Amino acid sequence: MTEAEFAAKIKSIGAEAYIVGGWVRDYLRGAEPKDRDYMLCGCREEDFANLFPEASKVGRSFPVYLLEIGGEKCEVAFARREKKQGQGYRGFAVEFGPEVTLEEDLYRRDSTMNSIALRLRDGAIIDPYDGRADIGAGRIRAVSHHFRDDPVRALRAARQAAELGFDITEETYGYMADCGKELAGEPQERLLEEMKKALASSKPSVFFRALQRAGLLETVFPEIAALIGKTQPEAFHPEGDAFEHTMLIVDKVAGDTKSLIARFAGLAHDLGKGRTPAEMLPHHYGHEQRGLEVLEDWNRRMTLPREWLKAASFVIREHMRAPRIEKQGKMAKLLLSLARSGLTVPEFQAVIRADHGGLPVYLEEAEQLIKAMGMVSGKEAPEGITGQDIGSWLFSQQVRLFQRALKETIH
């Protein structure tokens, strides 16, 4: 069934079909739209079910159907009103039916740019809350006080500011601030999902700065908020405190790689500075060990992706010493550890380059050096060597190959 056929069938029962949400926003921005969501006005559920018996119902608190349109499984929902009556994103009383208008459905949504509809039968844009003007102005503006009904909308606004390069209006910042109390009780996986999307943006720092401005950073990501005000030696960090440094690094890493693992490792590399005793400032001796402790606490609270946890732990441990190692045996050992860290060589290079402004030769040529060390294995150990001695022999041979390859690289 084509989209035009779907629209015609809906019209035949006296109802109207629209595309709503992010697809319309991106279409109007000139970006490639994804994931069409359909919404019906003036339609009774039983009439829809009779018209499309092949549709499968998936909604719980309100009906949402999956229906193949244009060769893809798409969501089809009915226009609805929502009334806040509890906590969190499930604390709603939902009303739906043919009497609910398009404007009422759009009014319950978060921002004006997401409250625009495209009418299927003629392609008309329905924009009762001036979302098109806000898109043109690069502005994220709440439709109404209903923005506060789902507290995670505060994170979504911050994330979309990072993704789109839009500014959040002052009134919307106020609504975001009002979400703080409920955010504290939200499922951590919802918060993590927004951070994942923000880290995938071209400038992830916008997300964290927006939460800071709304007074939400300490509630949602206390590990990052703890970096604010932790001074650093100005000669090495003219950008400012540990928070400013971390924001700088995560953006630099984002500019170097699309890897979310590397971007999170960049975000986490200096977490320990948030627990530096006040009397030690502006120095942060031992922040690597404290950083591992902070990361463990973060994981207990939010359950971070396992590969993020492994990679960030390696970066926290090694980011200070990696560029400063002088002994070639230690260089070889670090590269062998890198191969087991969950990070690729380019991912580790991106974080170290961002943090230190460059790479020593052995890290610049890390892939070639690791490949050279891989030419020998414990199977080639001389006869008579057993147990731990095999490991010692193997490492000595790997160092020898490392030294030879590094010498060839330099010359």
- Helicity, as a percent range: 40-55%
What gyration radius follows from the Cα positions, in whole Å?
27 Å
What percentage of amino acids are in beta strands?
5-15%
CATH topology of the largest domain: Beta Polymerase, domain 2
The total of beta strands comes to: 11
* CATH architecture grouping of the largest domain: 2-Layer Sandwich
What class do helices, strands and sheet pairing give? Answer: alpha+beta
Q: What number of structural domains do the residues give?
A: 3
Spans of at least 5 consecutive residues whose pLDDT stays below 50 are none
Question: Can you walk me through this structure?
Answer:
By secondary structure, the chain is an alpha+beta fold. The chain has three domains: 1-137, Beta Polymerase, domain 2 (2-Layer Sandwich), CATH 3.30.460.10; 239-364, no CATH class; 375-410. 49% of the residues lie in helices and 11% in strands. It has 21 helices and eleven strands. Strands 3-4-5-2-1-8-9 form a seven-stranded mixed sheet. The radius of gyration is 27 Å and the shape is elongated.
List keywords for this structure.
seven-stranded mixed β-sheet; single chain; alpha+beta; 49% helix; 411 residues
